[in-house]
Amino acid sequence: MGGNVTERRSLDRPTPLRRFLPVTHAVVAGAALTGGIAFSICTSATATATPADQWWVLGHDAKPSATADSAPLALAAAAGNVRPIVGQGGWLIGNGLDAPTDCTGSACNGGNGGLLWGNGGNGANGGNGGHAGMFFGNGGDGAAGVEAAYQNGTLVTAATAGGNGGHGGLLLGNGGEGGNGTAAVYDADGNRTSTATKGGNGGNGGAVLGNGGNGGSGGADDNRAQTVTVETGGAGGNGGNGGWLSGDAGSGGAGGSAHDSFDGQPTGGAGGAGGKAAFGLAGGGGEGGAADTVSGEASGGVGGAGGSSTLSGGGSGGSGGSARSDQGGAFGGKGGAGGSSTVGNGGAGGTGGTADSTSTDAAAGVVAGDGGKGGNTTMGTAGRGGDGGSGNAAQSASNGGAGGAGGSSTAGNGGAGGAGGAAESASTNPDVDARGGVGGKGGGTNIGSGGSAGNGGEATGTNSANALGGHGGAAGFAVAGSGGTGGDGGKASSADGSATGGEGGNGGNNVGGPTTIFGTGGRGGNGGDASASGDGNASAGNASPGGQGGTILGTGGRGGNGGNATTKGTGTAKGGTAGSGAYGGLFAGTGGNGGNGGDATAPTPEKAKPGSGKGGGLGGFGGSDGHAGRDGTAHSG
Questions:
Q1: Which of 76, 247, 457, 557 allows an S-S link to 400, with CB 3.0 to 4.6 Å?
Q2: Phi/psi at 78 (nearest 5 deg)?
């Protein structure tokens, strides 16, 4: 299932219907007559109910299957296929019957609960769960999908997806769980005879009170032969919605995995979306399915989006699926977006999927998945963006995923941006790069604090590969409030290649955004450090300026510091340039201080070139200017 699976509440505790209705046993004993139906209800105190005949309002514990041998169906058949009024399968009060295991078609759907109350029956062979009674009861669970059926080599029935969960009762009840999809099937010759199918959707909770059901997982597609070259995991089912008054939503199901044992192109299934909620917690998105191959290209599945909420927190986005190839490219799945909220916190974006390849081909692509965007909110703190996935390559270029942007808020704090993913390459080719992911932007707000930006991802070249740190993201603005802090550039280090630190991101309320009224501008992001152990150059990242102060009494943001650079061989070490301090508010505002230049360290003085500091920002009328930053220092020896 997806992240943030909420624990089921006490609604799952079974409560005997006897507490609500003084009837011990009831069956249909009459038959259909002209102009009506003749029936009788036995209320004899001596009638003894077996465990299979117990009536439960909110549990699935005692629900017999609707087989031809069950007493309710046998009596119903004797009475002209008329459902009993009360009891198992009762049309007024009673639990719906579970579908028989030998069913086909619509007969695989679970029976609905009684008109007044009762649980829905469970589905079978990919059938849907039955809906609960009108007022009380839990929805039945959807059944797992089944593979395709053949007769004498001819397709009789196609593979079925997992069944949907039934809905809970109008007043009270949980939605049923979605059934899992079925896995793909291959014959002895490597032909795919049955596809991987999606998971069923979770049922909605009771309209007033009740939790939504979780979505089912998608089926896997595991190919061990060469006949088929494209494999796709089944998508996860969506989570059910929570009740209007109270109840948590269901989580989305995970996407199915995909595998190819030769040179195929497997893709993991997408995660299902989380369900929506009003007062309860929204459902988290399902994880994207993983993918792996021997010599083809593998792509991880996309994470499912988190559900939205009206008066609570939005659901978190699902993580992107990982990807791996032994002799080919790998592409991680993108994380799902966080769910929004009207009054409450936005959901966090999902993390991007990792990408790994051990290929000896320098042209093999390795790109990790981006993080998902954080959820927005009208009143509250917006969701944080998901972190980018990490990339790892043996001989090819490697790229970390970008961090997701933070969500925005109207009255509250903007969401922080996600960090860029790390990248590593062990390539012996000096033309190959390891590049960290870019940090996500911080979210803005009208009243509150802007979101801090995500830092750039680190980059590592363990042999001759060059390393480039990811740039930091730009911070979020605040019309009335403080701007966010800019993201720092990612660090970079290489054993025998060159290293370049990432640039810092702008501080919040930087020039170019909306005009701010009150508050402090955000600090500019620092440049990333750089280190080269061999004979390559090391160039630290430059910093960015701070954000402007609010028009009235606002203080300008401080400029970021330049990154530090170090070389241990014959290469040049160059420190990063600082960011400027921002100007203060027009009326009595104070300018921000300038940042310091980065230091440089090399074996010989001529190879150490420190970065320069930057000046402070101007103050407004009646305000003071910011101080200038110092230059970096050169170190040798």
A1: 457
A2: -65, -25
